[in-house]
Design goal:
The complex is a heterodimer of chains A (209) and B (567). Chain A is α/β, with parallel strands linked by helices and 209 residues long. Chain A has one domain (4-199): TIM Barrel, CATH 3.20.20. Chain A has helices at 48-53, 65-70, 72-80, 94-100, 120-130, 149-154, 169-177, 196-199; strands at 3-6, 11-13, 17-18, 61-64, 84-88, 109-113, 138-142, 159-160. The N and C termini of chain A lie far apart (39 Å). A 5-stranded antiparallel beta sheet of chain B has the order 1-2-5-4-13. A 5-stranded antiparallel beta sheet of chain B has the order 3-14-15-12-11. A 5-stranded mixed beta sheet of chain B has the order 6-7-8-9-10. Chain B starts with 5 loop residues before the first helix and ends with a helix. The chains are: A alpha/beta (209), B alpha+beta (567). Chains A and B meet through helix 5, helix 6 and helix 8 of A and helix 1, helix 2, helix 5, helix 6 and helix 7 of B. The complex binds iron/sulfur cluster. Iron/sulfur cluster binds at residues 419-421, 425, 427-428, 460-462, 464-466 of chain B.
Chain lengths: 209, 567
């Protein structure tokens, strides 16, 4: 995996290997029509054969949550030594993860942005941080573009991982310098739950604090 | 109106820096077309048929004279010297150069303006009742809430990449002048028995391919919870709105597939942990923002005396259009001795909603002289001077008449809502402006226009329905039939508290046929109306049938057969 960027703007090599679904077998969006309890986004889960056959390399790996659930017995020993981390697809609900795993035992959790315009992981991250008390490492992976880094950090990600080769080291460095472009956003988010008017005294003549 | 403090200013300035850099990286090939598109869209920049179009936010349709002069100058220096008011109360410039856009945004930022989130799959700029704060039927001024929402929605990190666009509209009046029920969320502020401000939250309205009237999600939400409740709605939508089909991605589809009760249950579940959190509004914050919308320093005027004087003016100028202008373009005001005045942008020889830089300058001057320097835009693509003394009406009319801004047609047939259509818009199936022009010419006679009374006729160039043709009494929609421009006609749509979708009356027509079709519809109305009835009243009483028969007549059968042959 390439370099990763931390919320404070520092850049480091990653020590983890991400296990993605092979592109041809990636869950395909599919319309499902009217369905119960809001699971109408229409995406199919990864097929069982795929979960069975996907190789899990040695070392520190980030595997699909669905794969880990399916092959838990096989991976349990490695999980307990902290070398198995999980990533969650955008169509998977954080509630399912929370029900299946003790979040405190995760060395790292990654949320996938399957394509650039898909903002579901913003809400997943927000819920993990604010509702389910997840304090561990939270990585943004997938189609992760530098113009959204600041939003990702506001939503509780502490690391962003652009696709290999997407940015040169210089471009990533550049992106880091832009992180503080909006130091006083209007609304509360995970990084600071207070809206601007609770953070500072506002008036027509206010000066920046 | 709202004035930026240092925080607002720093934010729009930073936004300009950011967009300048994004455009530079795009032009240098660092950002792909696909990556740049959502970024430019969220800064109001479309790539149109001929040139980029910039949609500048006029939050809840409010601006001041200084801002209007700036728009005049930018339109003159960077565009072709005119602008267009959209149905979302914003201003569009149609002929910019991409490389100039960062500079234009920088100029806008200097006068407290921006183009943030005027397009793209995000929370869009907010629209409001154009008589907010001055209407006699208003219970709560919605503008402070609209400004609070503007700030909360601007650059919201969690809702930056929604399944599709998301539009709020607000009102605090008995009559809905903001088309609340065709918005993703429509908010009506009202007062309960103990005078507390409550919000009626409607959700899931929208036009386009699958038009829908919004349903009530919450009848009386206490105003303090406005933001946390909105957050809950948006989170449910962001997580579960469809992303596999852009025509099914609006919240109206989620509302329909879940049903309003299930959606409400999910929003409530999401809201429970947010309720009373840090985003809960306080009295102090509401008052701080509301102070910006305090009434201007009105003169104390005796209303009865003002009315007598106005009548005298009307009698003295009975031979002119002044009495008609008063009847159509002058609206009641809650302050004694004051009125709101519509400046019609639906004029012969001019595209609906368009006005030139020199007109902008002149209007700015009139606003300063007669209306405390404030200008409003309406979703029906007109302008309003909201604070005019009755005693100034005659002088204002004279000035407006000289500017060709006194067409007395507000609410009448020629006050058509019309999108830019095929002349400019890259998405169009057909041109809409030539239809509007043809109808303007045909119905130019004021005696006739006044006799016909209130009729809403809207023209959209494609099913995106920017002109809200579904909720017009007479809706005209451009469609593409075998590569020719055709127009589908619908009847019986209605906006306001009794919102209703129109019904398509039959097969479509060519542009040349449309004026005759409208004539036949009007003739049916004239033949069948009862004294005092408006077009929509007659339609609702007698139904579509008589209109359809009149329009298609004997030809109906033979044309239907012909259609079948080609199908
Ligand atoms: S209705 Fe269609 S043609 Fe008209 S402005 Fe909207 S997208 Fe363009």
């Amino acid at each position: 995996m390439p370099d990763i960027l931390f919320a404070d703007g520092s850049i480091a090599p990653t020590g983890w290997t991400l296990v993605p679904y092979p592109p041809a077998n990636a869950p395909q969006p599919k319309a499902r029509g009217k369905a119960g309890l809001a699971r109408i986004t229409g995406e199919a889960a990864a097929p069982i054969e795929l979960l069975d056959s996907l190789p899990v390399p040695v070392g520190k790996v980030i595997v699909p949550f669905a794969l880990w659930q399916h092959r838990r017995a096989e991976l349990e020993a490695r999980f307990s030594t902290g070398e198995i981390a999980l990533w969650l697809d955008a169509c998977e609900e954080v509630e399912t993860l929370v029900a299946a795993v003790d979040l405190a035992t995760l060395p790292l959790l990654a949320l996938d942005f399957p394509k650039a315009g898909d903002g579901r992981a913003f809400s997943s991250a927000t819920l993990l941080r604010t509702r389910y008390g997840y304090r561990g490492a939270l990585w943004a992976v997938g189609d992760v573009l530098c113009d959204y880094f600041a939003f990702m950090f506001r939503c509780g990600f502490d690391v962003v991982v652009p696709k290999p080769g997407r940015y040169t080291p210089a471009q990533l460095q550049d992106a880091a310098t832009r992180l503080k472009l909006f130091p006083q956003p209007y609304q509360g988010a995970v990084d600071d739950a207070r809206p601007l008017w609770r953070r500072v005294a506002r008036s027509a003549g206010a000066t920046l604090q | 109106m709202y004035r930026y403090d240092a925080y607002d200013q720093a934010l729009v300035d930073a936004r300009v820096t950011q967009f300048r850099d994004q455009t530079r990286r795009y032009l240098a090939g660092e950002l792909s077309e696909d990556e740049y598109r959502p970024l430019r869209l969220q800064n109001g920049l479309y790539v149109q048929r001929h040139a980029p179009m910039l949609r500048i936010a006029l939050p809840y349709g409010l601006l001041d004279a200084h801002q209007l002069r700036t728009l005049a100058r930018l339109a003159r220096d960077y565009d072709k010297g005119y602008g267009h008011i959209s149905t979302r109360q914003n201003l569009q410039l149609n002929w910019l150069k991409l490389a100039d856009v960062p500079e234009v945004l920088a100029e806008l930022a200097k006068v407290g303006m921006h183009a943030i989130q005027t397009s793209g799959s995000c929370i869009r700029s907010i629209t409001a009742d154009h008589f907010a704060g001055i209407a006699p039927d208003e219970h709560v001024d919605p503008r402070p809430f609209a400004e609070i929402l503007r700030q909360w929605t601007s650059l919201h990190p969690e809702f930056a990449l929604l399944p599709r666009k998301f539009k709020f509209a607000v009102s605090g009046a008995t009559h809905d002048r903001a088309a609340l029920s065709v918005h993703d969320v429509g908010l009506t502020f009202h007062r309960d028995d103990s005078n507390e401000v409550k919000v009626r939250v409607q959700v899931g309205g929208g036009l386009g391919r699958n038009p829908a009237i919004a349903e009530v999600l919450h009848e009386d939400l206490p105003w303090q919870h406005l933001l946390t409740y909105a957050e809950a709605i948006l989170r449910v939508y962001n997580r579960y709105g469809r992303r596999d089909n852009m025509y099914k991605a609006r919240i109206k589809i989620l509302t329909q597939s879940l049903g309003i009760a299930q959606l409400r249950a999910q929003v409530d579940a999401e809201w429970a942990p947010l309720k009373d959190g840090p985003s809960t509004l306080t009295d102090a914050e509401l008052q701080r923002v509301a102070a910006f919308f305090a009434p201007p320093p009105y003169e104390k005027i005796d209303e009865a005396a003002a009315q007598i004087e106005l009548q005298r003016h009307q009698d003295a100028h009975a031979h002119t259009d002044f009495p008609r202008w008063v009847a159509r373009c002058v609206h009641p005001h809650r302050q004694p001795g004051y009125r709101a005045v519509t400046l019609s942008l639906k004029r012969p020889d001019s595209r609906p909603g368009d006005f030139t830089s020199s007109e902008m300058d002149a209007i700015a001057t009139l606003a300063e002289r007669y209306s405390f320097g404030l200008i409003r835009t309406t979703h029906s693509q007109n302008l309003v001077l909201g604070e005019v003394r009755v005693s100034d009406l005659f002088a204002l009319w004279q000035a407006l008449r000289a500017l060709h801004l006194a067409t007395p047609n507000t609410g009448l047939l020629t006050d058509m809502i019309c999108c830019p259509g095929g002349d400019l818009c890259g998405l169009a199936n057909a041109r809409s402006v030539p239809i509007a022009t043809a109808l303007q010419e045909r119905f130019a006679d004021l005696d006739r226009l006044f006799d016909l009374g209130e009729i809403e006729l809207n023209i959209s160039g494609c099913i995106n329905s920017c002109s809200h043709h579904h909720i017009a009494h007479i809706g005209i929609l451009g469609v593409d039939k075998d590569n020719t421009e055709c127009y589908q006609v619908s009847l019986g749509g209605n906006q306001g508290t009794q919102a209703r979708l129109g019904r398509i009356i039959g097969h479509s027509f060519t542009a040349a046929e449309i004026p005759q079709v409208v004539e036949k519809i009007i003739a049916t109305f004239v033949a069948r109306r009862q004294p005092g009835e408006r077009f929509i009243d007659t339609y609702q009483r007698i139904g579509a049938e008589p209109f359809v028969t009149q329009v298609y007549g004997d030809e109906a059968g033979s044309r239907a057969r012909k259609e079948q042959k080609y199908a």
